[in-house]
Amino acid sequence: MDRAPGLSVRLKLTLSYAGFLMVAGVLLLTAVWVFLLRGVAPPSLYAPSFANVLRVFDPNNFGPVVFGSAAAVVLVFLLVFGLVGGWILAGRMLAPLTRIADATRTAATGTLSHRIELPGRRDEFRELADAFDSMLARLEAHVAEQRRFAANASHELRTPLAITRTLLDVARSEPDGDPADLVDRLRVVNSRAIDLTEALLLLSRTEQRSFTREPVDLSLVADEAAETLLPLAEKHGVTVETSGDVTPTTGSAALLLQMATNLVHNAIVHNLPGRGTVRVTTGVDAGGALLVVENTGEVLAPELVATLAEPFRRGTDRVRTDHAGIGLGLAIVKSIAQAHDGTLTLTPGRAGGLRVAVHLPAPR
What we know:
The protein is of the alpha+beta class. It has helices spanning 9-37, 51-56, 64-108, 124-173, 179-208, 218-228, 230-236, 253-269, 302-305, 329-339, and strands at 214-217, 238-244, 248-251, 276-285, 288-295, 343-348, 354-360.
């Protein structure tokens, strides 16, 4: 915003201090003149302990002219003292704001690692500095996450394009090859690229929260997701169990169905082949709606589980070669949960596998 130049805050505070001191001095000298020199002060003010002071202000010894001159000298002294003292005090009081302004200008250049770290006990300035440091930390983490996401997304989108080019180059070098096989391979690669693009668009939609909220029964959503993926479970030899009562919440039915589908799909694919189990449970917990998806599988390290919700983080030990996915399943789940003001919790199972819990707010 383009603003006209004005006085600095330090100068304004200095003038305010000096002006207040001048007003106080004028009032004090006026009171001395009215109550002492003109002899109208109440008798109780003339205590013996003030005899020497009253003698100084006796009209016979200290006339109005002398008093006026002394008052002018006092006021000039108060003015100079107020200006100098006010300038020093204002500078000390505004020093934290100077550090905050310097940190702001540094952050504006793109350097988000700088912190104010204002020392001292808590007050308004230090609360402002701490809040600014917290904001810088969140911004730095968000920017780093966005950069990683952009780099990973670029890599993932480049992969199918590179495979397509390789297939076309091979087909050109082998004109007698089977065109049907080339078409089938290109179709698979193209389908993967489409899935990835749709997943990225879904992430963008959920982060912008551009959807209509409506009453949703989370138990019905979970049942529909499990029923839809039943053929995939049978193919992998995995048993899917669902249970739970009516679980009301508010949000987008389509997005919540996508969230439940991703969770069940992830639990089926990353499981024990031929003898795995997936348990889907819904219910009301602490005034909100709770969806829990648990599966059997290999023992997972807590360090790995903590990163599984990051975009394009597949978890090398958990990926099956026949269904690696696009690495956005749990990232989409987390984004949908946050868009509905909910939380996502990942916990490794004691005997193996993963427990995923989504907690959503109660209907409003």
